[in-house]
Amino acid sequence: MDITDFRSLATVLCAIGFTAVVWWAYGPSRKQRFEEDAQLPFLESDDDVYPPEPHPKHAKGGQS
Length: 64
Prior knowledge:
single chain, elongated
């Protein structure tokens, strides 16, 4: 066995891993879950995630 055999084995293993990830991501049993998850950013308002901070001019201790 030389380095070429190890490179070939690594290529085959990476191809199998890539195929497994694609199968997992696009499998029909997970389609509904991923579609629901894709809508999450549109369901939340930005105010819920990032509460508004007071303007530095109006913050306590700020200079006028």
